[in-house]
């Protein structure tokens, strides 16, 4: 017998909760029932059944209504609404976001002292989003039934998938229902399906600390280190934090120090556009590495979608052109500012908006460089410069005219140039995800050292291992810092959503 959906017109009452875990359980009950209903009805249609009327089910929602300002710890940047009123958001994938929802719900209850309202929204679940495994819905239907799909089921509607809240352009108005979260459920579902498409990974494998890179060499080193961590050691506690290493397609290598479970899954025969690899930790507190390839378009595409996971931090590790004569190949560049010459986000984040560095991330990266290299204080300056990075959308920037290039770099005080870092940082600023950049000088075109195959291969083998080690160590230091400190008020505006 088919499970009935929690339709708004059905006799399923709105419930109120003062316990975050119970509230999340109710969200899951509604979501599981409604998505199961949609899947069952779709499979019946795929088998040849003739649908009678339209088939629809909707997302669960959470709402909070307050009548007085909150009494909060002013050091915290999230977990409360800015002023009295009603705030709500639709919710999806409670299996994936269970820990996140419990945290956000618990802070709302604690800071406002009022119960949370859990119910069924009027926002329909598109049939594609009822399947979490990335199934190609149309692939199960014949031509005639594909034509019926839109008539019978709700399909993804781009009119409801936008980023005005993240962009700071959403009008928070007194007397209206305002948003609790930066993303609605359809926006989250859209990005979760895009993540699977671009990275070859199930969204459940993504971790809260994300490293973006632009070279396969970093992936090779990440996999080598990951397999070392998964291998049996004499003192298993040394490798006990990460439970498994997951590759694109879901192939998992389990930590032999924690269980005797054999490797499982199948490796993809062909890698996706931006493959992702995951060192899985408890409560998603491990590290994800994504090879985004080269260019600002890829950097924007993937960070637009990773943002819905609500990571605690992301950073760019990659190569750059050194612009100063004092630099040498293999030196590190820690970004403290960006010239956004890529124009990938101009319409969402105008160029007049500064993208500052974040002290917590800067300190973690600097301390990681010192820890891995053994250098500190003034000696650290022999291998690392802090300064402005130019990110360009022109891969052939070197042939733009030597005099004009030098003039622009001199005026901006730039010390390095790449094609991704400013986009990753700008989207971190835009989505309130703590961000940072540590690049490695791989060529110096202005000074006659251009990137040639032989030079590149020697450089990569010498430097990539150390650079990735620094990135992993920096993420571990940020994890030790704690999410309350990382998600600081520096990234929050006047009117912000309660959800981090």
Write down how many β-strands occur, each being a DSSP E stretch of 2 or more residues.
15
Termini gap: 40 Å
The SSE order reads EHEEHEHHEHEHEEEEHEEHEHEHEHH
What Rg do the Cα atoms give? 24 Å
CATH level-1 class of the largest domain = Alpha Beta
Low-confidence regions: none
> Main β-sheet: number of strands, strand sense, barrel status?
5 strands, mixed
Structural class: alpha/beta
Mean pLDDT: 89
The largest sheet has its strands arranged as 1-4-2-3-5
CATH topology of the largest domain: Rossmann fold
Q: What this model shows, in words?
A:
The protein is of the alpha/beta class and 500 residues long. It has two domains: 15-193, AMP nucleoside phosphorylase, N-terminal domain (amp nucleosidase, domain 1), CATH 3.30.1730.10; 200-491, Nucleoside phosphorylase domain (Rossmann fold, 3-Layer(aba) Sandwich). 34% of the residues lie in helices and 19% in strands. The protein has helices spanning 20-46, 94-112, 143-152, 164-167, 185-199, 216-230, 296-306, 359-373, 402-412, 421-431, 453-481, 483-486, and strands spanning 15-17, 58-66, 85-90, 116-124, 178-179, 209-213, 244-246, 252-254, 276-280, 287-291, 313-322, 332-341, 384-392, 414-418, 435-443. Strands 1-4-2-3-5 form a five-stranded mixed β-sheet. The chain has a five-stranded mixed β-barrel with strand order 11-14-13-12-15, surrounded by four helices. It is globular. The protein starts with 14 loop residues before the first strand and ends in a 14-residue tail after the last helix.
């Amino acid at each position: 017998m088919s499970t009935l959906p929690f339709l708004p017109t059905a006799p399923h009452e709105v419930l109120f909760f003062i316990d975050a875990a119970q509230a999340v359980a109710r969200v899951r009950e509604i979501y599981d029932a409604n998505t199961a209903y949609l899947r069952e009805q779709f499979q019946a249609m795929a088998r040849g059944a003739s649908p009678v009327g339209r088939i629809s089910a909707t997302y669960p929602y959470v709402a909070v209504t307050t009548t007085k300002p909150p009494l909060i710890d002013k050091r915290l940047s999230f977990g409360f609404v800015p002023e009295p009123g009603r705030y709500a958001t639709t919710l999806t994938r409670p299996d994936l976001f269970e820990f996140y929802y419990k945290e956000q719900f618990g802070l709302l209850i604690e800071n406002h002292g009022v119960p949370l309202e859990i119910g069924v929204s009027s926002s329909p679940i598109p049939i594609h989003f009822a399947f979490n495994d990335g199934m190609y819905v149309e692939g199960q239907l014949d031509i005639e039934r594909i034509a019926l799909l839109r008539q019978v089921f709700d399909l993804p509607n781009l009119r409801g998938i936008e980023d005005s809240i993240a962009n700071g352009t959403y009008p928070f108005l007194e007397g209206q229902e305002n948003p609790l979260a930066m993303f609605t459920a359809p926006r989250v579902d859209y990005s979760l399906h895009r993540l699977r498409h671009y990275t070859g990974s199930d969204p459940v494998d993504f971790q809260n600390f994300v490293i973006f890179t632009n070279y396969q060499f970093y992936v090779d080193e990440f996999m080598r280190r990951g397999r070392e961590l998964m291998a049996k050691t004499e003192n298993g506690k040394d490798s006990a934090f990460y439970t498994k290493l997951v590759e694109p397609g879901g192939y998992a290598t389990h930590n032999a120090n924690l269980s005797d479970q054999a490797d499982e899954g199948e490796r993809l025969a062909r890698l996706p556009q931006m493959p992702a690899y995951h060192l899985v930790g408890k409560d998603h507190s491990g590290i994800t590495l994504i090879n985004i390839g080269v260019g600002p378009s890829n950097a924007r595409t993937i960070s637009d979608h990773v943002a819905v996971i609500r990571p605690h931090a992301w950073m760019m590790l990659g190569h750059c052109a050194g612009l100063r004569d004092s630099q040498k190949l293999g030196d590190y560049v820690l970004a403290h500012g960006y010239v956004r010459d890529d124009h990938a986000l101009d319409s969402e984040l105008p160029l007049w908006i500064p993208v500052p560095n974040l002290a917590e991330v800067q300190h973690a990266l600097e301390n990681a460089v010192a820890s891995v290299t053994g250098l500190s204080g003034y000696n650290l300056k022999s291998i690392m410069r802090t300064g402005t990075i130019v990110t360009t959308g022109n891969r052939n920037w070197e042939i733009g005219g030597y005099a004009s290039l030098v003039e622009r770099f001199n005026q901006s005080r730039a010390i390095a140039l790449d094609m991704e870092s400013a986009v990753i940082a700008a989207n971190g600023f835009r989505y309130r995800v703590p961000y940072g950049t540590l690049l490695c000088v791989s060529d110096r075109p202005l000074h006659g050292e251009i990137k040639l195959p032989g030079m590149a291969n020697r450089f990569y083998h010498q430097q990539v291992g150390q650079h990735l080690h620094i990135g992993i160590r920096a993420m571990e230091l940020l994890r030790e810092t704690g999410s309350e400190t990382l998600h600081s008020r520096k990234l929050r505006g006047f009117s912000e959503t309660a959800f981090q």
